[in-house]
Each structure stands twice: as structure tokens, then as C-alpha cells.
Amino acid sequence: MKELDYDKLMHIKTGHLKNQPSVRLFQYHRYEPTPYSALEVLFEHYEVSRSDHIVDFGCGLGRLNFYIHHFYHASVTGIEMNKDFHEMAMENLENYQKKMKGHPDQIQFYHCLAEEYDIKESDNRFYFFNPFSIHIFRKIVHKILGSLEQNWREADIILYYGHDDYVQFLENETPFEVLKEVKIPELYERNPYERFLIYRVAG
How far apart (Å, rounded) are the C-alpha atoms in residues 50 and 175? Predict the structure, then answer.
């Protein structure tokens, strides 16, 4: 299925934006949605269940959130610091709710800095598409680990296009261990960052 076809299926708009609205912060990177073709590959090799609660840091217009909810019926939370992107995500949610059946209350969007989001006891899957600097990533991972200490559970961190500083931090300074590497066919041959790295702390 083509990129635009997925958006049409879910009655949303999550494509690339020619003009990035609002002021961007230095440590936050520009909006770029995870390609649907990459999500297809990821979920061929990685299982998501109805009982999972996924948090997408730097969710943009909500593509990952709607994809997971539509196909896997899991609860999803999107964190977005850009006010305009958050408003677009909420418009997508309204259109999605009008057309789709199920439990739309399982999709939440928060307008805040990623490091300000308080990890919920139910959150157990955390997604990052290179959304910000290693400085912010460290803060968030420490908050995740703090939540796990209070309510121990199995938890995964999923990196798409994970840069070396993310990887080195997780592998050298945290209890997260590599669970799986999912390479994007053809693209990985030209660019070694075209992959998903999945890290897990066992509950």
C-alpha cells in the first residue's frame, strides 16, 4: 500500500510538510514521519498487543499512533512540543474518530516538551525517530527507568534511524539490552541508519 493510501484509509493527513510551522527549538529536530513502508517492516518482526501502551516522543501529526491503533488496537500516546503539529494531530484524531470504530479514547496527544511528560505506570513501549538531542533523550530514559523502579514491568525502547550517541548511551549506561535489529530492505544497504533497534528491560 502506498503512503497516501494509508492516510486515506485512516482519514488522516500525516505526510511531509514543505513548510515547517512555528519556531523550532535547537535541540529538537524537524518533523519527518516514519515511512509507512518502514512501519510495515517493523511490525512484521515486532509484536504489539492490545495490552501495550506505546508512547511516541516527537509524534508530529500522529502517524505512528493511528497506525498502531488501527491495526493492533493498542493504546498510544503522542508527545509533541510544536503547537501547530499538536493541533494538526488533534484534527487527525477528530477525523479518525468520525470514521473509525473501536476505542478512540485509546489515542492521546499531549502538547508539551518530551522531557516534561510524566511516564504512566501503564506505559511500556517507547518510540523515538531521532526527534531530539542526546541530552533530552538521556532525561527521558532516566524518567522511564524511574517509572520502572516504582512499578517494575517489561519495557521496550524502539529507535528508528537511531544515531550512535543514542545507541552508545543505551548500551553502556542503562540496563536496556538489544532485543532485535530490523533492517529496512534495500535502504539499509545504502544507509546503515535505515533500521529499527529494539531494546528491552525484562520485567
Answer: 26
